[in-house]
Amino acid sequence: MTSHSKKLPNIKQAVPFFMVKDMEASVNFYVKGLGFSMTESWTNKGKIKWCWLIIGAAALMLQEINKENKVPKENPGEGVEIFFICEDALAIYNQIISNGIIASEPFVGNKMWVVQTKDPDGYRISFESFTDVAEGTKYSQWI
Hints:
Layout: H1 3-6, E1 17-20, H2 23-33, E2 37-44, E3 47-55, E4 58-64, E5 81-85, H3 89-98, E6 107-109, E7 112-118, E8 124-130, H4 139-142
Parallel strand pairs: 1-4, 5-8
Antiparallel strand pairs: 2-3, 3-4, 6-7, 7-8
């Protein structure tokens, strides 16, 4: 074992950090729509500027874009996708669409049910769970 690899066990978690245009819209999407819980936040003048959200054992952070941030304000999430591996992606699909979130029809890809949605800034959020259903099967064909 090299001295470099000896340091790795100190790493506990990787947490995506999204810069967002509208914190209120993003918090509503993740908390009310997807079921995350806000466990930490920083407010300035009564407005949330940064927060830590969790769902199960996964987490992500949001921070509102301001003039100090060097993030494109048009589509900050373009090209970014986060995959949450879960026990039952179809249950999550049913939960989030009942919360008014638009999600694409689930399908089986790479031996997993895939549920995809986009947040208000264009970040692609996917939930996946392993399955033995045939590759390429769409939810509407399976139910």
